[in-house]
TrEMBL record:
Family: Belongs to the pseudomonas-type ThrB family.
Domain Protein kinase: 2-319
InterPro entries: Aminoglycoside_PTrfase (IPR002575), Kinase-like_dom_sf (IPR011009), Prot_kinase_dom (IPR000719), Pseudomonas-type_ThrB (IPR050249)
SUPFAM superfamilies attached to this UniProt entry: Protein kinase-like (PK-like)
Domain of life: Bacteria
Protein name, as recorded: Aminoglycoside phosphotransferase
């Protein structure tokens, strides 16, 4: 990202001398701001060619709604002009800039040892889903959150880099998804990306952040996302045993906050495998393969082979 863009964005929210440290994000657009006066917060730059301002407003409103009902969320930071969203332009390109407090705590690096942490993770996810049904969330529903298939990954041309066999699998999954009921019991507002890198552990509690993908989807898919990404941290021989324990702990916490019928729970393995295909298609569409290192290319080649062969991500004893 151009330094001129970073400087403009930082100037909108801070003052005096400062430094920016890249934190990451899929587009390498998330930075930590450290001011000479001791101020510290997270800056996120969003390309206006890809993001709508209305979507960002919905994201921030949803986060405030969750925080207002007891969930620990990385809070929004207002700019020097008192705005939650600022705009910066450079050489004909427009960016939206938002800022958040730095979430206290540390990332979860050990997903295997402490089932109580996984239960709290599940409770947080269940609480989010339950709050989407809360009477006070009616206005949020009226704000027009996007539905599951409105993302460009569904509406644009399928990326050639993914290959014809993956495309065939992709169409099978989309057909199955399109046939699923969208009733309030199984479908609603979800985080849509709640893996272990999108929250911190602080004093035994969980602080959630990165709600940029919030929208309508199936609750079972939101659960599957957490399981899918957790499984990726464990070597192959231990995956099945770990996945079973992880899923039990996550659902134990989840069901304390939100009811989900066994019919939907039984669909979690389907959603896990769909997440795998989605992830591969996403990489194929948005990543320049020539810029990837050999390890990543080998990993993606393995993903592709498993998808083409119809190999499940992991076997879960859900029935």
């Amino acid at each position: 990202m151009e330094q001129a863009v970073l400087d403009q964005g930082a100037g909108k929210f801070g003052k005096g001398a400062y430094s920016l440290k890249l934190l990451g994000g899929f587009e390498q657009s998330v930075f930590e701001y450290a001011g000479e006066d001791g101020s510290r917060f997270v800056l996120k730059f969003l390309d206006a060619a890809k993001y709508q301002k209305a979507d960002i407003i919905r994201e921030l409103t949803w986060m405030a709604h969750l925080a207002g009902h007891g969930l620990r969320i990385a809070e929004s930071v207002t700019s020097r002009e008192g705005l939650l969203i600022e705009e910066v332009a450079h050489e004909g390109q427009l960016f939206y800039v938002v800022a958040f407090t730095i979430a206290p705590g540390q990332p979860l690096t050990d997903l295997e040892s402490d089932a109580s942490v996984i239960e709290r993770w599940g409770r947080g996810l269940g609480r989010m889903h339950a709050l989407g049904k809360h009477d006070s969330a009616a206005l949020l529903h009226q704000m027009g959150f996007a539905h599951w298939n409105s993302h460009p990954i569904y509406t644009d041309e399928f990326p050639d880099a993914a290959g014809e066999k993956v495309h065939a699998r992709w169409k099978e999954y989309l057909k199955e998804l399109s046939s699923l009921p969208q009733n309030p019991q199984g479908y609603g507002i979800v985080h849509n990306d709640l893996h272990h890198r999108n929250f911190y552990i602080h004093d035994g509690d969980i602080v959630f952040f990165d709600f940029g993908d919030v929208g309508y989807h199936w609750y079972a898919y939101d659960i599957a996302i957490s399981i899918y990404h957790a499984v990726q941290t464990v070597p192959g021989p231990r995956k099945a045993e770990f996945a079973s324990r992880f899923c039990d702990a996550l659902l134990t916490g989840y069901l304390q906050e939100h009811t989900l019928s066994n019919d939907w729970i039984k669909r979690i393995p389907f959603f896990i495998d769909f997440r795998n295909v989605y992830s591969f298609v996403y990489f194929s569409k948005y990543v320049n393969w020539h810029e990837l290192d050999g390890r990543t290319r080998n990993y993606l080649a393995g993903m592709k082979a498993d998808i083409e062969a119809g190999t499940p991500v992991v076997h879960l004893p859900i029935s």
